[in-house]
Design a protein that fits this description.
The protein is of the alpha/beta class. The chain has 5 helices and 12 strands. 27% of the residues lie in helices and 29% in strands. Helix 1 crosses helix 5. The structure holds cytidine-5'-monophosphate (C5P).
Length: 221
């Protein structure tokens, strides 16, 4: 576009799922496709930003002009984000980070036994977006919330609790949007304001969300 409201700004985002290893051949993960995060990375680049995309394992091509860092686990993603966050103006957490990881990663493949049940102990992963928002030199920080009910209530709670500048809430209860879909609808909240972005393809929606982020960023900086 002719107008590039993110020109001269460095923007980092996370996208995709994380994989939490159980042993050398098995992991716990989720159905995130990474499509929304990759669409946001492309849109941010088109609006002039210098974009770093920290991605979990997905089968998507890197958008042109975007610097990509591949990670697997939530801890890998946390480390990659923290290593580069200090120079960023804007941070968008779009990844579906696993909340918990196996406490012990077996060094060899776990064998089947005669027992009918097995217990895997899990331990909490670091909250990446909350850690970024807690930094002394905090970038403009945007989180996502995927909820199946009480979308606004949980989004506003998350905005406050994680000290975010903005939160984009998905209603993932319908199959026409969110997760693996090419379409999405978002309700975007910030301190003292909200905007609904109606059901659209993720590319168009990404442009709208980035335009809103650019506006809020410039209004507050
Ligand atoms: O609390 P909840 O997981 O629902 O919050 C979702 C938001 O937090 C998303 O922006 C997600 O990318 C981010 N998140 C994160 N690190 C985690 C868990 C969630 O950055 N460990």
């Amino acid at each position: 576009p002719a107008v590039q409201p993110l020109a001269g700004l460095k923007l980092m985002l996370t996208a995709g799922p994380t994989r939490e290893a159980l042993d050398p051949v098995r992991y716990i993960s989720n159905h995130s496709s990474g499509k929304m995060g990759f669409a946001l990375a492309a849109a941010a680049r088109a609006l002039g930003a210098d974009v770093t995309l920290v991605s979990g394992p997905v089968s998507l091509a890197t958008p042109a002009g975007v610097q990509r860092i591949n990670v697997e686990s939530a801890q890998n993603m946390y480390d990659a984000v923290m290593a580069g966050i200090d120079v960023q103006h804007i941070f968008i957490a779009c990844a579906a980070v696993a909340d918990y990881a196996p406490k012990i990663v077996a060094s060899h493949k776990i064998k089947k036994t005669s027992a009918d049940n097995m217990v895997v102990e899990l331990t909490k992963n670091p909250d990446i977006v909350a850690a970024v928002a807690a930094l002394q030199q905090k970038p403009f920080t945007v989180g996502f919330a995927a909820e199946t009910r009480d979308v606004e209530k949980y989004a506003l709670d998350k905005l406050k609790r994680k000290n975010l500048d903005m939160i984009a809430a998905n209603d993932v209860s319908g199959s026409d949007r969110g997760f693996n879909s090419d379409q999405n609808a978002l309700s975007v909240f910030w301190q003292g304001g909200l905007q609904h972005l109606p059901l659209a393809d993720k590319t168009g929606l990404a442009e709208q969300l980035l335009t809103l982020i650019a506006k809020r960023y410039h209004d507050t900086h």
